[in-house]
Amino acid sequence: MIKEVYLENVKSYKRQKISFTPGLNAIIGENGAGKTTILEAIGFALFNHLPYKISDFIRKGEKRGEIRVKVVSPLDEREYVIVRKVENGRTTEYYVEDLEFGRVAEGVKDVKEWVKKHFRLSIDSESIFENALGVSQGNITAHFLSPPHVRESIFSPILGIENYRKAYEKSREYEGSIEDKIIEIEKEEIRLKERLKEKKEVEKRLEMLKNDMKDMKNRIEFLKGKMRPMEEKKSELEAIKVEIDEKKREIEILNLNLQNLNGDVERLERELKRIKSIEDEIEKLKDGYQQYIRAEKDLSSIISELERIEEEKRILDEEEKKIGKIETILKEVEKRIDEIEEELKNLEGIEERAKIEEELLNKMRAIEAEEKKLNELKKSLALLRDDLKSKKDLLESLKAKEEELFKIKSKLERYEGIPEKKEKIIKTIGKLSTEIKNKKKLYEELKIEKCPILNESCDRIVDVKDDVRREIEELLSKLKKAENLLKKIENAEKVRKDLENRYNKIKGEISIKDDLNDEIRKIEKKIAEIESEIENSEEILNEKNDVVKRLKEVEGSIQKLELFRDLLKRRESEVKKRENLMNLLKELKSKILEKEWIVKKYEELKSKERELRRVIDSRKREYERYISAINDIKNKESVEKEIKRKREEREEVKSKIHSLSKEMEVLQEKFNEDEYRRISEEFEKTKNEMIKLQGSLEQIEKRFKDEEERLKEFEGIEIELRNLITKKEEYKRKYKFIKDLREIFKIAIPEITKAYTNAVSVESNRIFCEIMDDFSWQITWTEDFGIKAKYLGRDIEFSQLSGGEQTVASLSIRLALLKLLSSAGIVFFDEPTQNMDEDRRRNFAKQITKIKGFRQIFVISHDDTFEEMVENAIKVRKENGVSVI
To answer: pLDDT at residue 473 above 90?
Structure first.
C-alpha cells in the first residue's frame, strides 16, 4: 500500500506531500493541474518507468528534484521509503530505506529487485507498470484496438510467453551447435585411434632398453669392486704424502718466524739504548717546562677576565646609546598625556547622558516589539474573523441540510417494509413458476388425449386439457403481474438505498454541528482577547513620539562614553609608561659612571696578556721536548720485557724446527713415489672407464624415461578417447532431448497462451459485470490478446462497443492480469471515465469500490463524480503555475 508521496521540484510541483488511504483514492482536478504527474512520480520511483527524459521531469528553472514514496510492503507489512533524487538530467541517489534499520537497497538494479520481491511481481516491474498497473489514459483501450502482432508484442512479455518463443528459437541454435560438437568429437576420435597404433612399437623399445640398462649396471658394479683395494692403497700413500708436505710447510713457516724474531730483538735493543741516553737530557729541560706551564695557566685566567670586562664595556656602550632614545620617547609620552587631558575636559558629564540614551533605546526597542506584536495581532484578528464567517456560513448550510434530512427521513418512512415485500413477491414468483412448470408437464401429457391408466382415447381428457391450458394462461398472467411488481419493488428499493446513502452522508455532515458551535464560541472568545490586547498595545505606542524626541537630544552619547572610557585607559597607560621610562633613565645614568674604571682595568690586563704570551712562545720548544722525553722513558720497562719475551720465543722456535725435521725423516722412509704413481694411473684408468659406462647408462635411462613418458601419453590418449566417447554419447542424448524439447515448446506456447487468457477471461468477466452492474454480459480475452463481448447471447466485436464499454472492458482485462501476475494490491486508473455518459460514470464510480482483491485503487480524473463517492478525495489545482493539493 502507498501511504504517502512527497514531490520537490517535480514538473509543476515545488514542495508537496500527498497522503493516501486504503481503498479508493480519487485524484481530482482540471486538465493540466498536475494529476498525472503524481502517477508518473510513483511509476518513476517505484517501477523505474518514465515515458520521457528525466530533464523534462524537473520543474523549469530548477536543477535538481526529489521524489519520496512511503509504502507498506505486502510482503512483511513494514513501512519503507523509496527515495529518488535527480540532478542535471540524471539520477544522483536512488534507494529504499527501512524506517527502523536504514537503507536496504541502493541503485536501479537493487531497488527494482526489492520492488519485484516485496510486491511479488512475476515479471519486470517497469513492464507491468506500463501495461497493467499504471496504463496512461491514451493506451487504456488503444492497445486492444491495435493489430494482433502489436497486441502480442505488448502482452506476450507480460505473461512470459515471449520467453517460451525465445527458448524455442534458442533451442534451434543449440541443436545445431550440439550437432557440430558431435561431428568435431567424431573427428577427434578417429585422430586418437590412429595415434594409439604406435603404442606396441614403444612397448617393444622399452623392453630392449631395459635389458641394455641391466648389462651396463652389472659392468659398473664389477669396476667398482676392482677400484676399492686400489683406492684404499692410494688413500694410504696420499695421507703419508700430505703429512710430509705439511711438515715441510711447518718447517718453512718456523724458519721465517725465526728470522723475524732475530730482527725484533735487534730493533728492541737499539730502542733501549736510545731511552737510556734521553734520561741524561731530561733534567736540563725541566725548568723551561715548568715556566711554560705557569704562563699558560695565568694566560687562561687573564683571558677569561678580559672577556668578562669586554662584555661589561659593550653593555655600557649600548646603555649609553639607549639614554638618548629614552629621553626622546619620554617627551612624546608627555605630549600624548597632555592631549588626552584636553580631550577628557571636552567629555565631562557624558556618563549621565549615555545612561539616559540607554534607557530611551530600551524603551524604543520595547515600542518596536509592541508594534510588531500589534501587526501580528491584527493579522490573527483578520484570519479569525474570516474563519468565524466561514464557520457561521457552514453552520447555516448545516441547518438547511437538517431540513433536507427531515424530508429524506419522511420519504424513507414511505419505503418501509420494502425488503419484506420483495422477499414475499420473490416467493410468490417461485411458487407460480413451479406451478406453471408442473401444469405445462401435465398439459404435455394430456395432449396425447389418452387415458394414462387404460391407454385409450377419452373425451373427458380433452376437457381437462382445455382447463389446464386456461389455468396455465391465468398463472402466466399472475406471474407477469408479479414480475412487474418485483421490478417496481426493486426500483423502489434502489430509490430507498439512494435515499439511505444520502441520509447517512448528510447525517455524517451535520454530526459536526455541536463541535462547530463550540469552535465558533472559542473563536469569538479569542477575537475578544485579541481586541483587548490590540487596545493595550496602542496605548503603549502613544509614547513613541516623545521617546523619539528625547532620544535625538542625547543621540551618540553611548558612543562618546566608550571614547571617554578608552581615553581614561590610554591616560593611565601613558602615565605608567612615563614612570617606567624615568626609572629606566635614572638607572642607566648611574651605570655609566662605572665605565672609566672598567676601561683602566681592561688596559692593565691586556699588558699582562702580552707578557705571558712572550714567555709561552720562548719556552714552547723546551716544553714539547720534555713531554716527548717523559713518554719515551715511560716505555723503558715495557721494551726490556719485550726483549726478554722475544729471546724466549726464538729458542722455542729453534726447538720445534729440530723436532719436525726428525719426524719428516721417518715419514720419508715409509713413502714410495714410484708405487704411488703406478697405483694412481691404474685407478684413474678404471675410474674413467666406469664414468664412460655411467654416461652411457644415463643416456639409456633418459631414452627409457622418454619412452615411458610416451607410453603414459598413450594412457592419457586412451583416457581421453574414453572420455570423448562418453561425451559424444552425452551430446547425442542432449541432441535428442533438445529435439524433443522443441516439439514440447511448439505445442506448449499456444496451450500456455490459452491457459492464461482463459484465467484472465473468467476474472475480467466478473470485474466487467460488477462495474457495469449488469451480469448479462460476457467478456472474453482471446488467444491473440484481443477482446470479444457477448450481450444476451449476441456476439459483439470490441470495436463495436461504445467508448465507455471499451474502457470498462480494457480496465477489467488489466485488473484481472494484475491479480494473476502480482500481489501488489494496487492499481491506477488514469481518466477512466472520459468516454462514459453521466449515468455510466456514476455507476463506474459506485462499482469500482466493490472490486475485490485490491487493497488500494487510484483514480485520476477531471470528473468530480468521484469526489462525493470516496473517502479520500485529493483535489489538485494550480496557483500561479504551481500545483497544490
So the answer is: no
